[in-house]
Amino acid sequence: MTSNTIELIATAPMGLEAVVAREVRDLGYDQVTVENGRVTFVGDALAIARANLWLRTADRVLVKMGQFPARTFDELFEGVKALPWPEWIPEDGEFPVEGRSHKSQLSSVPACQGIVKKAVVESMKQRYGTEWFRETGGRFVIEVALLNDIATITLDTTGPGLHKRGYRKLVTEAPLKETMAAAMILLSRWQPERPLYDPFCGSGTIPVEAAMIGWNLAPGLRRSFNAEAWPLVPSALWQEAREEAYDLVRDDVPLQIAGSDIDRSAIEVAQASAKAAGLAKELNLQTLPVAKARPLGDYGCIITNPPYGERLGDRSEAERAVRDFGHLYAQLPTWSAFVLTPAKQFEHYANRPADKKRKLFNGRIECQLYQYFAPGGLYAWRKDQEANPSPEQ
């Protein structure tokens, strides 16, 4: 690995590795390896900036510094010391060490962190000729991850997780992560020319993420990243990546995105998020029980994360809300629906079996993405568009 060719890891929630891999390939990086919880790919310093700005469904972007067997502390120390730390970390860099261990002989995480820190210091001493490092500069978070006696050593380029887009200042109870909301939209294959409705929109994460996808807004444009202070990723590269992102915005695309929720305070939070994201005029958000929801248009997508007790207060209310969803969806014969919930009885209460199910984890909660496809689906929508083109086409 050199500063020109860098092995990067996009960490992924369980079940979303393939979605993250598709995003990485869409950015133009084709040397991709998919593993549990991570997608490894090869890029350059510019790739660090582009991946952080563009990846909607990954948790963070890491530099893979090295990987080697480590059954003893000596093996861990020597393996870490041999890595090119001074190429990445300047003399004043701050380099805390985080760690985790699973099914490995080196099971004491604090001890492993201490060994890694000592090894990095020894490597830095040889380059900088000093015994003490002030650590007052940029932040270079090192992680040692031990699995089956193999140590993987990484540097975190991201900082706070990629789900922190910068637009959500307030949250409701049990909020859906922005990365998961984006994944649901990408899995639905929704296109911005189609209507999208979320009848349990809560703090508005799904409508906001859909609008960002519809306008091709890079999700990281409103925030900063650890690697912006790294000498190997100079400010000119970040400027180049941001200029590329701004050039690719399609804010002339008309959107038909709406959301509703029975909780007025949740809608106020959703409206604040939409305003912070610069999308307040593009989203129709209103206080409304699902029983009164009436989505407009044909061949649309319902994409939603219904409450399961937390926000509605108790299980019976949540069950009633899902039954009302079933009644709503029965009135939308040309629409598809994608529903994320941990509720085991969802299909029973919705009064319809899903066409397809996919296991996902919302945080640590195991959920199913229940997928309902309208007859004809995208094909029928495209045929309808060809037969009835809009005046703008």
Walk me through the structure:
With 393 residues, the protein is an alpha/beta fold. It has helices at 17-26, 45-54, 73-81, 85-88, 109-128, 178-188, 205-214, 235-247, 264-276, 315-330, 346-350, 377-387, and strands at residues 6-11, 32-35, 38-43, 60-69, 97-102, 141-147, 150-156, 196-198, 257-261, 283-287, 301-304, 336-341, 356-362, 365-372. The protein has two domains: 6-156, VC0802-like; 178-217 and 256-387, Rossmann fold, CATH 3.40.50. Helix 2 packs across helix 8 and helix 6 (178-188) packs across helix 7 (205-214). It is elongated and about 70 Å long. It starts with 5 loop residues before the first strand and ends in a 6-residue tail after the last helix. This is N-6 DNA methylase. Keywords: Methyltransferase, RNA-binding, Transferase. Residues 47-157 form the THUMP domain. GO terms for molecular function: RNA binding; rRNA (guanine-N2-)-methyltransferase activity; rRNA (guanine-N7-)-methyltransferase activity.
